[in-house]
Each structure stands twice: as C-alpha cells, then as structure tokens.
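mind reviewing both lines:
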Amino acid sequence: MKLSKNYKFWFCTGSQDLYGDECLRNVAEHSRIIVEELNKSGVLPFEVVLKPTLITNELIRKTFNEANIDEDCAGVIVWCHTFSPAKSWILGLQEYRKPLLHLHTQFNEEIPYDSIDMDFMNENQSAHGDREWGHMVTRMGIERKVVVGHWTSQAVREKIASWMRTAIGIVESSHVRVMRVADNMRNVAVTEGDKVEAQLKFGWEVDAYPVNEIAEAVGAVSESDTNALVDEYYDKYEILLEGRDADEFKRHVAVQAQIEIGFERFLEEKNYQAIVTHFGDLGALKQLPGLAIQRLMEKGYGFGAEGDWKVAAMVRIMKLMSAGMKDAKGTSMLEDYTYNLVPGKEGILQAHMLEICPTIAEGPISIKCQPLSMGDREDPARLVFTSKEGPGIATSLIDLGDRFRLIINSVDCKKVEKPMPKLPVATAFWTPQPDFATGCEAWILAGGAHHTAFSYDVTAEQMGDWAAAMGIEAVYIDNNTNIRDFKKDLMLGNVVFGK
C-alpha cells in the first residue's frame, strides 16, 4: 500500500507596490533564494514551490483557490517580506481550505549596521508585515501554525518539516475510509462513537460489511498465492513450533496468509485504508485475524480491535504522518493490559490478543501458534516480539457525546525486567509521563480509552496541531502535568468545546 503521495507546499510571499518595482524584484529574488535553499537542505520531507509575490486582492484570492483545487498541494506557507495590507488577504483566506503555516522570518539574519538606511528599512519589514497579517488571521479565527526564526536555522527548518507531516495528516484525513467487519463489542462504551459526526469533523467514512462477505474474498484466494506468502513468512520470521507438528503448524500459518491476501484485496477493491475486526463475529473465518492484521498494519493500514473504528482511523493517520521518515521506529494500535506496581519500576504492559504492528519491534520477530479462548476458532498464528525502547506518544480519541477529545500522553518505553515465556503475544512496556500515578490519574480523568494509537515517530505537538486543525479539544499529559492544573484544563475544555 502506498503511504506517501508526491505532495508539495506552496510558498506565498506578501508585499505591496508602495516602494516600487526594484523593491518587488528584490522581494521575488529573496523568496526564490529561500525556497531554493529550503529544498536543498534535505530537511524538508516535501518540496516547496515558489508562487508569484502576492500584492493584490485578486491575485491572493486566485492563488488560494488554485491551492484548494490542486490535489498535489498539501498546504501553503506565507511570509510577508514587506508590509502587506491584510485587508487584501480577506477573501483569499475566507475561501482557503487547506493547512496554513505562517513563517515569521526575514531575508537578512543580522541588521546591516554600517549600511542600513530607510530604503532597507522599508523593504525589509517582516517584523511589521507579519504582524499585520497575523492580526487578520487571528481576527478571522483561522487555525494556522506559526514558525519564528531565520530561514537558515536548522531548528526552523525542522519545525517546517514537522508541520508538513501534520499537514499531510490533515489533508489525508478526508481520504480515510474505515471498513468495519461486524460491529463493536457488546456493552463496551469506549469503542462506540458518532460516525456521522466523525465524518463531519474529520472526513472519515466508516462503513460496515457482513463478515461473511469478506470471508468469501478470503476463500477465493488460490492455494498457490497462499503458499507463496507462507514461504515469505518462513523466510522472514523465526518459526517457533514449541512442540507442535511442523505440518500442522504450517497449515495454521497458511490460514493467516489466506486472510491477509483476501483482506488486502477486498480493501483495495473497495478503497479502504483501515479495518476493524471483532472476535465475537468471525463468521466463516477459520481463525481470528492475527498475523494477517499485523502484516496489513505494517503495510500502512489502520487497525482497531473489537470494532474500535476511531483507533483504526488514528493509526492510519499517524502512519501517513510518519511515512518515509528516516530512522522511523514505528506506529501501532496498542492496548493497556496490566500494570507493574513495584515501587520505582511502575509501568503498563501493552499488548493485545494478537494484532500489534511489527514496525515497533526490536530484535527477532517470531511466528507462534497458540490457543485463544476468544473467538471460538482454531489456534491463530501471530507475530511475537518486544518493542523498542525510547520516547513515544499514546493517543486516545474519545467521543464525549457532545464533542470529540484527543488525549495525548507522552510515554517512556522500556524493556521489561524479565522474559515472559508463557505470553504468546507482542508486547510493549512503558511508564506514562510525568510519572505512573499522575499519568494514569490524568488519563482516567480525561476519559482515555484502553485502546491507543501509539507512535515513536509522531510528536505530541504534531497531534495537537492536527486536533486544532480539526476543531477539536486536545489535552496533553507529559512531564509538565500536575493534577490540579490538569483538572482546570479539562474544565476550560468543557467551556470552550462543550455544547
């Protein structure tokens, strides 16, 4: 599955004709140099495209509307080189619908102390023009990202690069289609949600299919295609028979291979990028999809267990935001399972029955075939591994009845102290920031779910910016969190976002 599209970002410089043609020529040349150097830096994940200097209402409006209809344009970067009267931007901003970044910079890094005169001052008015422009965007209530600093700065370039990935999550959100195989787990609240409101807010399409319709697609997979994928499994992963007959073990693995191929073909045919399953409704499927789902997630599909379509969509978006990232460590659906409460060693063991994405794995990845009481089917094959160490974020998108809230918890992933030889599933282990007790208390107060969309690569800032662009509340749990202030943040969220 192709995760990364050849998106581009437009660079639009604001100015006006008060200071003459020579000034405008300098503005255009400075903008050209900045765009060229940004593209040459190797920092930005997508190309920046220079647009003509914007000095009139008509050109500004035309440019923004062209950005709207250009499928390759994922957002616009605006910089006001000189003073740009902001009323000229109103119609264009009113009609613009894509992510917006305000780069508050100037061409020169240092004041030219020996030569500065009023001509220089008039031409290089970013401190003036950007404030005028920023005032109008604020007055219009338009969400945007502001990055401040000189355009040659590594930190500034990294911030632009980070925003670009957020912009991809925003633009691609309206293309996310989630296929539900059966319904949510009975009597479970947190996996429920308003699918109509989700489409209004995020652009997601969430559709249900009878399980046997997709089971027919699985059954149609040929034996030769299945065996070829089984061979790939056996080449790529360690095989842990653990006393099972080798031929019988391979037959169980072949069931997952057939499910992977059948599911993927069905998803491609129907144009879905995320999927949810439910162990309570497997129809004609011989096993609960395990290894098959893990492999689909590795390819970029979103997944949510027990009908949790919100997590499936969020996993898909976070995979899109981190696609092509150098040294990426992985993104997956995870579930809070059990605690370690030994003082000084507190943490949460993350796992699921089967379906954890192998992109987060460190070390060997093995195939096991073990009984599973859930689902009432034959023993499913699954990939087993332990996850990487390091910082990450766990996110939970919840439906509060009158609105959505995105909870973003920074976590520190660690290795468990001892092996768990009898636990036949992939695992992660982390301590929530700022500490176990505070992190867990804040999560529960915010209404966080037990399923999460987790990533080592996407940042809390990026997800917060994504939530802001979607017009929903975001709450952060990190090393700055204390419960007294966190409760105030939740109360403020109720006032601002509640209906």
In short: The mean pLDDT is 95. The chain is about 40% helix and 20% strand. The first strand starts at residue 8 and ends at 14. The radius of gyration is 25 Å.
